[in-house]
Structure formats: C-alpha cells, structure tokens
From TrEMBL:
Taxon lineage: Bacteria, Bacillati, Bacillota, Bacilli, Bacillales
Domain of life: Bacteria
Signal sequence region: 1-30
Function: Removes C-terminal D-alanyl residues from sugar-peptide cell wall precursors.
Protein name according to UniProt: serine-type D-Ala-D-Ala carboxypeptidase
A biological process term (GO) from this entry: cell wall organization
Length: 400
C-alpha cells in the first residue's frame, strides 16, 4: 500500500518534524535532469559511449552522458550477480562456508576464469573472491547454480531484482556477461545496481582487494589479481567491476569513498583500458572536488518508535527502509532542513518490514530525499486479557 493511500485512510495521521542544521543543497539537486544539464558542460567521459556519476547516499546523478542507452555490459553484469549473492547470505539462504560444487557446464565457461575443474568444490567466500577479483565466469555460474538450481533460474532472479530497483533499460540472459542475445543494460541501471550492492559494504573486502590467493593450502595456489587496477592506484577506490568484450569494449562500474562520501561512476564503451581508468578517475575527482554527502540514516537503522493500537506489544521500533541522506555542494552556506516523520494510525497486526510511514527530508518546501519507515518486528493483535491488564496498569500509572 502506498503511503498516500495509507495516510488518506487515517484521519488521525500524525506529522512530526524536527529541524536539522546541515550543509545546503543547491535546488537543482532535487531534479536529476537539471543536474545532468548543468554538469554536462564539464569535459568528462569524452570517449565513453555512456557514463553516469552518482552519489551513493542519495542516488543523485551528478553527471550523465547517454545514460539510458542500452549496451552490452560484459563482466560488469557481475555487479548484479554479486548483489544477489550478498542478499542470499543476508537472508540466511546460504553461508560463506557452504561448499559450492562446480558442474561440467560451469567449468566449461570461457573468457575470464579461475580454472575450476568439474566436481571441484570451493567455499562460497572463495567463489565470491574469484568473481570479484578475477571476474571468474566459471565461479559465477557455479554459485548461480547453487543458489537458484540453475543459471536460468538465477538469471530470472537477476531480472526480477533489476525491475525492483527501477532498472528500465536492462535484460539479463546470463550471469557473467559473456556475449549472448538479449543481454544489455545502461550506465544508469548499472549505477542503480552498484549503489544497492555498496549498501553491503562487506563486499568491499573482496572488490577492494588488489591481489589474493585461492586454494592457499593446496600444492597449486591460484594467484588472483584484480581486473580493476584503480583499487590500487586511486585513493579511496574499493570496487566494483570491470568488463570487456569486443562488442562492449571497455566498461567499469567503480566505487570510491572518502570521508564518508561514497561515489559511483559507470562508464561503458571506452576505447581502451587506460582511457577507461583515466575517465573514471576524472569523474571521481570531479565529485570529490565539488560535493560532499551526509548519510542521515542507514538502511535498517532505528529511527522512531510508534504505539500500536491494540497490539500484542504496546510499541514497536521503526527502521529506515533505505539509506537516506543529503548531498551538499562544497563551500555552500549552512541552511536549515526539516526532517519529517510521517505516520498514520498504526493498527495490529503489523508484519516485520511493513511500510507504516516515511522519513521526508526537505529544504523549505522542496523535498530533497525520502524513504519508507518499516516495522522492525511483527506485532499481532492483543488478546482481551492483555488489553485489560494494560488498561489497569495505565490507571495506576496515571494515579501515581
């Protein structure tokens, strides 16, 4: 149910506002198109077919070039593969210590690989390391088969998740980006996927590594070297994924973080690897030189507590449904922002994760950012005896 419908049904809707003193945001940042129009004057990503520069905290686009053009992503496809792996771990569907078997099909993958043998088993953590650092096509298929039963099943999950993220330019046909029909995405969609992946910051333990080993305890340990050389040479760079095929040319979805400010830069169709790295570095330099970002609430962070009408428990905690923050132009004056917590009357039963309100960040009358407030726990309806005891207790409390 949308928040608008929810509030509309409850005449007792509450509006709670507190004031935040934060760095100001230029009004244009509330409008993605206006932002892009302004920054396109900057000489960035000149040789890329398409590009996007995005603030990870707010999703604000700082620069874009042909950002919705549908293009083959090559191995940058694995951004979505890694996202589904991280989400499967968080959901308890798989564990890092799970042994992943290598099928004949997974072992047959060409291109970038970690040279898995049919029947060979590595832990999920080792497989992810092979995907993130060495771009292992074989490892990506092996993990997909383990999680979804088949590569086709995992691809279906990839396409479903892309739609949930608002990716309108994307169609996946495999899990690793090897050339095939009906497999494409855009720089904008890759930025959305990358932003979601970076909410799982533990993934940077792998995407940010320059080199490591697989099968360390074996007689033939396998040396991994990151295909993204910027993790070694660009300050703050900790991911995410490179890609190359003859059709896609050189692609990269990159993430860098400085002083809590994380930036996503995506380029597609670059002519060479050195040009790709140089243009991503320029995009990052532009962001860090001109902006800073402040995260107000991380996804899942406790924000508020609300009373539950006739609930089994009298109150439940409300959590941020997504990361929410404010993007600030460097050197701008301090201004006043309002943080509004918008709730309707909350009645039992309530399910964990159910949206019951929202956090709205405003600059004057302009909405800067918004995310759902979700229930932190289930709350069933209270029985008559529980309600009676609660009423009696309130009498004595009031009397005291």
């Amino acid at each position: 149910m949308s928040l608008r419908k929810f509030v509309g049904r409850n005449a007792t809707a509450l509006l709670c506002a507190t004031t935040l003193m934060l760095g100001s945001v230029a009004p244009a940042f509330a409008d993605e198109k206006q932002t892009a129009k302004q920054t396109n004057q900057v000489e960035l990503a000149k040789q890329a077919t398409s590009a996007v520069l995005m603030d990870a905290a707010t999703g604000t686009v700082l620069f874009e070039k042909n950002s919705h053009q549908k293009l083959p992503p090559a191995s940058v496809t694995k951004v979505m593969t890694m996202l589904l792996i991280m989400e499967a771990v968080d959901a308890g569907k798989v564990k890092w210590t799970d042994k992943i078997n290598t099928s004949e099909y997974a072992a047959s993958m060409g291109g970038s690989q970690i040279f898995l043998q049919p029947g060979e088993q590595l832990t999920l953590e080792e497989m992810l390391k092979g995907i993130a650092i060495a771009s292992g096509n074989d490892a990506a298929v092996a993990v997909a088969e383990h999680i979804a039963g088949s590569e086709e099943g995992f691809v279906q999950l990839m396409n479903e998740r892309a739609k949930e993220l608002g990716c309108t330019d994307t169609s996946f046909s495999n899990v690793n980006g090897l050339p095939t029909e009906n497999h494409y995405t855009s720089a904008h969609d890759l930025a959305l996927m990358s932003r979601e992946l970076m909410k799982h910051e533990e993934v940077t333990k792998y995407t940010g590594l320059y080199q490591d080993y697989l099968r360390k305890e074996s007689e033939k340990p396998f040396w991994l070297v990151n295909t993204n050389k910027l993790v070694r040479f660009y300050p703050g760079m900790d991911g995410i994924k490179t890609g190359f095929t003859g059709e896609a040319r050189y692609c990269l979805s990159a993430s860098a973080k400085r002083d809590g400010f994380r930036v996503i830069a995506v380029v597609m169709g670059e002519p060479t690897s050195p040009v790709r790295n140089a243009e991503v570095s320029q995009l990052m330099d532009y962001a860090f030189a001109n902006y800073k970002s402040e995260v107000l609430y991380q996804k899942g962070q406790e924000v508020h507590e609300v009373e539950i009408d006739k609930g089994e428990v009298p109150k439940i905690k409300l959590l941020a449904g997504d990361t929410v923050g404010i993007l600030m132009k460097k050197g701008a004056k301090k201004e006043e922002y309002q943080k509004e917590i918008v709730l309707g009357e909350v009645k039992a039963p309530v399910k964990k994760g159910q949206a019951v309100g929202s956090i709205v960040i405003k600059q004057g009358s302009t909405e800067i950012a918004k995310t759902d407030l979700v229930a932190g726990a289930d709350c069933d309806e209270a029985g008559m005896w529980t309600l009676f005891k609660r009423t009696v207790k309130s009498w004595f409390t009031f009397g005291g």
